[in-house]
Write a structure and sequence with these properties.
66 residues; 0% strand
Length: 66
């Protein structure tokens, strides 16, 4: 595990989102990082499609295939 430095403002946003979604701050940050990575690898997919693909066939998304 590594340490990622983020701004205080972004940390506050993660903290608020984590409380709303009932996740730890680390789990919320990890979720956002995963979604951001998948969105960059699959720019043609909408958010809902990314979530569905993540649940159904995560390995293909990580390789950049849909």
């Amino acid at each position: 595990m590594g340490i990622v430095k983020i701004t205080d403002h972004l940390h506050e946003q993660v903290r608020l989102a984590s409380a709303t979604m009932d996740r730890s701050i680390n789990a919320q940050a990890e979720f956002w990082i995963k979604i951001g990575l998948l969105a960059e690898l699959n720019p043609h997919l909408a958010y809902n499609d990314l979530i569905n693909k993540l649940l159904l066939d995560k390995p293909d998304l990580i390789r950049g295939r849909s």
